[in-house]
Amino acid sequence: MKKQFHLVHFAIPLTFLLLLLSSCSDKEKNKKVASSDKPNIILFVADDHGIDALGCYGNPVIKTPNLDQLAAEGTRFTNAYCTSASCAASRSVILTGKFGHATGSYGHVHDYHHFSTYDTIKSLPVLLEKAGYATARIGKYHVAPESVYHFQTVLEADPRSTFEMAEKCKDVLNSDKPFFLYFCTDDPHRGGPFRPVDWKTPNSFGNKADGYPGVKTIVYDPKDVLVPDFMPDTQQSREEIAQYYQSISRIDQGFGKLMAMLKETGKDKNTIVIYISDNGMAFPGAKTTVYEPGIKLPCIIKDPFESKKGSVNNAMISWVDLTPTILQMAGVDAGKNKFHGHSFEKVIGEENPKGWDEINASHTFHEITMYYPMRVVRKGDYKLIWNIAYPLEYPFASDLWDSSTWQAVYRNKAQFYGKRKIQDFLHHPQFELFDLKKDPNEIVNLATDKKFLPLLNDMKTRLREFQKNTQDPWIIMWGDHDNSFQGTGVHL
Q1: Nearest residue to 242 via CA among 255, 228, 229, 223
Q2: What is the C-alpha to C-alpha distance for residues 284 and 190, in angstroms, rounded to an integer?
Q3: CA pair distance 9, 2, nearest whole angstrom
Q4: Which residue, 292, 200, 279, 193, is CA-closest to 240?
Q5: What's the rounded Cα separation, in Å, for the pair 155 and 168?
Q6: Could you report the per-residue pLDDT of 139-172, keeping only the tens digit for each?
Q7: Of 30, 245, 391, 426, which cross-links 305 as Cys (Cβ 3.0–4.6 Å)?
Q8: Measured distance CA(110)–CA(88) in Å, rounded
Q9: 162 φ, ψ to 5°?
Q10: Who contacts 403 (Cβ-Cβ below 8 Å, separation ≥6)?
Q11: What CA–CA distance (Å, rounded) separates 22 from 276?
């Protein structure tokens, strides 16, 4: 009897323990199964792809079935932001978790621009390699120096042919080690030459008459495309948007090829896939600006350990959050590295997670000749832009100036570019305060309305605190030395 009593006595907690274990979420179960293996990670970065041109983000015209499938199997973020709508500056943030104003990555790396990250910075691929990952990159790089952004394997392929790029990744996908693949297309960036012989000729966006091997050429009729509100609805705009769509459909097919190859390896069940763009579409009013079309971008994440599929996440996240998030997903300790961003790994499956309602942006240069520092804070529906060098005329990226979309407006001496007056497009006030819920096109500047002075001052305080916390050299451009912000307070 004594032995039987003890057996019954221990059976109760054992049963309770089994019930507890069986109540674990699918995500926790899957993670336990995979606990002995670190997840593989694919970070797929398009070049100048705005949120406007994806089926899963509401565009019924463009054909992006493979990326739409990724959204159906993962999480689609509706409030994801780059920190600078410029290729190199944005990519440095993606790979470091720090704002470019604090790392020396103020603008373009290549040619005479020559901006470069401080050699003390530890980047994502370096940290993952240290943790035992096989790291590989293919396509656009656009960061420097190589010692900071080192990848063990560099693959070569035509960066306009994502299908060819995918095929070159076969050995990486079959790696014996957990792998980090940084897959960066040149599409849908504008193609050369940027200045056509006839200004009315639309840019090619990398499209070719004879197409690319393995890719079905998908051509769009200019009359069918959707013209965003910030752009003029002209024949030139429509022709260029049609080319832009075609370039994106090429990305989609290459992405589909990469996913098919991943599935063939059997590693799709243990591979996190992230799709983003470095900045908004390469049209005036988007790329190189800190208006929404320039910095609000697609972000789709498929985490095989996340039980919710096809979910939508409304959290405000930023590219400065990507490195800490990826490291946490990989189970990698960043050591003493202090990031400006924060991991959102724990809230990926949530629709409206609390505490994710504020982001910042920081743009200083695009090309070396384009000095126009801007700092941004968005809190909820309100957004403040500080145009630090506001007395200067807003500078153009060379490819955007030569675009037929802009030239049609410029040559015809039009009064408006989209919903914004040309005068306002070229000359920005010192502060721009917008209510994005009521004014999604960012036209009505509340900074000059006395009713919004308390809000303006609160947003300025938030902006200055952000600059202080991220070691922004441009914080000295506040001329005052208190928190009242009553005067203009800026010197040049």
Answers
A1: 223
A2: 12
A3: 11
A4: 200
A5: 7
A6: 999 999 999 999 999 999 999 999 999 999 999 9
A7: 30
A8: 9
A9: -65, -25
A10: 190, 194, 203, 240, 282, 283, 284
A11: 36
